[in-house]
UniProtKB/TrEMBL annotation:
SMART domains found in the cross-reference section: UDPG_MGDP_dh_C (SM00984)
Protein name: UDP-glucose 6-dehydrogenase
This enzyme's EC code(s): 1.1.1.22
InterPro entries: 6-PGluconate_DH-like_C_sf, NAD(P)-bd_dom_sf, UDP-Glc/GDP-Man, UDP-Glc/GDP-Man_DH_C, UDP-Glc/GDP-Man_DH_C_sf, UDP-Glc/GDP-Man_DH_dimer, UDP-Glc/GDP-Man_DH_N, UDPglc_DH_bac
Native organism: Pseudarthrobacter enclensis
Amino acid sequence: MKISVIGCGYLGAVHAATLASMGHTVVGVDVDPGKVQHLAGGVAPFHEPGLDELLRDGRASGRLRFSTNPADARDAQVHFLCVGTPQGKTSDAADLTYLVSATQALLPHLAAGAVVVGKSTVPVGTVEMLRGELATRPDVLLGWNPEFLRQGTAVKDSLVPDRLVYGVEGGRPAAFHPATGAALGVTAALDAVYGPLLAAGIPRLVCSFATAELIKSAANAYLATKVSFINAVAGLCDAAGADVTELSEAMGLDPRIGSRYLHAGLGFGGGCLPKDIRSFRAQAATLGISAVEDWMGLVDAVNVGQRMRTVGLAAQLCGGSVAGRAVTVLGAAFKPDTDDIRDSPALDVADRLAAAGAHVTVTDPKAVNNAWLRHPGLRFESSTQKALQDAELVLLLTEWDEYRHLCPATAGQLVRRRVVLDARNVLDAAAWQEEGWVVRGLGTAATSGGLTAAAAR
Ligand SMILES: NC(=O)C1=CN([C@@H]2O[C@H](COP(=O)(O)OP(=O)(O)OC[C@H]3O[C@@H](n4cnc5c(N)ncnc54)[C@H](O)[C@@H]3O)[C@@H](O)[C@H]2O)C=CC1
Ligand SMILES: O=C(O)[C@H]1O[C@H](OP(=O)(O)OP(=O)(O)OC[C@H]2O[C@@H](n3ccc(=O)[nH]c3=O)[C@H](O)[C@@H]2O)[C@H](O)[C@@H](O)[C@@H]1O
């Protein structure tokens, strides 16, 4: 099939490349000429494992190209809208202006009977609003196909998703022929797009626009809830002298609970969960559902609280204040295996420590270039060894494998004080303590110890 992907960021670039790998002919359109140049050259403009290979394959096969001109999408039968829906500047609600302008730019180039399908994460009611934008083209079909991929595993998540969700006009009853059961309209078009995935047994759920919009928001809200729940319990563990890592392991072995998104620490960040729970909160407020509104407010507050708590613990480990202290931060990306620094908890903490007078050095395997542009008050170092040199306090804030497997003896030779705040609870505390380190986690008070001694140094 001929397909266009409008918006080629973390979501759209991966979507375009994986569709081409399934045999479709794909054009990716983006307003950012630099991004398009990279992608057209077969190089991902951001770090995403496996994407470069797919881009190169797509280029070599001639099935994948990129452009800044929406007119280049005119031959496509299906258009996927993948532009950003960031948090608005003055409220919690999502900013839909990119979606509206992308739709308007595409409108004059739509072929007769084309299918326009949104993948961006949007508040409930957005598809109805976009239908108004397409009012002059009753022949054009509209659908919503929310995306659930995670950065860092985006290629695999796209090729082997847990499920496909199609939001269609009239919902499930309108999606299939009443007599034959054959898929109709948008459902048939998306079945053709995702043929190889459906043949591999990936479940496909067809529902109304409103349900599709809410499925995506609710899924992210639930993941965020799980993380904030365990982080709230981590606070309880600290107060009670219990260990949240052991608690979480035991809870997670119950299949009704499951261990994923139950890892306590610095909390969630990134371009999605934080803005999506705020958008969900704003939607609930508009619809007058105070339970969801209050719930999301609490999930957000617990999450932001973990950052404050980390800053407070850093001060405690420095005897009450970080002012004048050399602090090394391991990690700048919002999570490992990405160079994305959008709402990065690590950089938020680093900024706060710098504002409190610490001399902060930040290192990261992939995100240093992105980070130094936006955080001029911090010092960046790409070598872990150089970053650790003469540190008085080390903070592990993004759990890259490289940091999980740091040798405590080697690191100990580099620093001035052997004190580490493991805000992702991933280090083998006993191994580090054996090398003379004071180790502090979040919610792991029972295994830390040595705090008073650390503060005194
Ligand atoms: N990043 C992720 O892992 C996932 C993101 N999503 C959702 O997908 C959407 C996009 O997210 P990201 O890819 O992370 O954002 P992004 O900011 O990386 O990419 C958005 C792209 O859209 C482009 N753009 C803006 N206006 C345009 C226009 N009029 N025409 C063409 N291109 C235009 C921008 O230049 C940018 O490259 C958001 O709604 C997000 O919530 C959903 C699932 C996963
Ligand atoms: O809508 C989106 O954009 C995407 O948002 C998340 O994906 P992503 O933001 O890439 O990252 P996750 O792996 O979900 O991690 C999010 C944050 O939660 C944190 N986290 C995750 C799990 C955990 O146990 N504890 C924890 O603190 C991570 O460090 C990270 O900062 C969802 O997992 C995807 O399904 C969704 O498609």
